[in-house]
Structure formats: structure tokens, C-alpha cells
Design brief:
Arc Repressor Mutant, subunit A; DNA-binding; about 40% helix
Length: about 120
DNA sequence: GGAGTGACTCGGT
DNA sequence: CACCGAGCCACTC
């Protein structure tokens, strides 16, 4: 029997996209954090996969996603690295040697925001 | 259906 | 700090 709730199950991938889309301008977030907020603990690794698979049409702020050490996850000097670097600077974020001041730029979403914005 | 692969993380050295 | 190893999970051959 089909579910009468009318709420289709959201795949992990789509949950991740939802969360990434919420990261505000000028803020950054780690892979592990995103997985956590998406209700998918220990999915940090899959976050990167999901981002790579995300269609351009979604226009996700992928550049606001960095690793838990506050550094850009791409190899330095790669095209993607420079791209992310300049995008972050465009938002007023200071990037030094691929490193970012998490203490100042890390995203701290409040529970209300998550509950109101996410369908789960 | 098993092995290999990542834009990861954490703890130990 | 930096490097290493183990744990992790969905995806792709």
C-alpha cells in the first residue's frame, strides 16, 4: 500500500543538496557538518560525491564547502582550487594558502532554520 | 556481487 | 604542524 502521507522519501543525495543550498553568503561549512545537518552522520565522504554529481542547474554554493580542517579540499594549484578560492574571496572570506578562519566564517545554523527549510 | 574509489574525519605518533 | 591508519558510505566498474 502506497504511503498516504504524500511525502516521498528524500534520497541522501538530495538531502545533502538541500543543506548545501542553505549555507548563507559569506559563510562556510565542513563536509561532516553538512552530513550531520542532513541527518546523515558519517556521510562526510558521500557529501563530496553528491556535490560532484549535483547538476549545474541547481546552482549550489559548492565553494562554501571545505574540509573539517578549514582547508580547501582540492589539490592546490588545480583549476577547481583557484575557482573556489576566488569565489570565497568574492564573498569577503579571507583565504590564506587554501586555509580559512573557521572561527570567523563557519556556518552555525539555528535549529529553526533547519526545521523550517528542510522537509524532514 | 566483490574490489576499487573519493572535494572526508578523527585519533595517534 | 605533518603524516599515517582505520573507519566510513554510496557509487562505479
Amino acid at each position: 500500500m502506497p504511503d498516504t502521507t504524500g511525502s516521498p522519501p528524500l534520497s541522501p543525495k538530495m538531502r545533502i543538496w538541500q543543506v548545501v543550498a542553505l549555507i548563507p553568503h559569506g559563510k562556510v561549512c565542513s563536509y561532516g557538518q553538512i552530513a550531520d545537518y542532513a541527518g546523515l552522520p558519517r556521510y562526510a565522504r558521500y557529501v563530496s560525491t553528491a556535490l560532484k554529481q549535483a547538476p549545474q542547474s541547481l546552482q549550489l554554493p559548492w565553494h562554501r564547502v571545505i574540509n573539517a580542517q578549514g582547508k580547501i579540499a582540492f589539490p592546490p594549484h588545480s583549476a577547481a582550487f583557484r575557482e573556489q578560492c576566488s569565489r570565497l574571496r568574492n564573498e569577503g572570506i579571507t583565504v590564506n594558502q587554501g586555509r580559512i578562519a573557521l572561527s570567523e566564517c563557519q556556518w552555525h545554523p539555528d535549529l529553526a532554520t533547519l526545521v523550517l527549510s528542510l522537509p524532514f
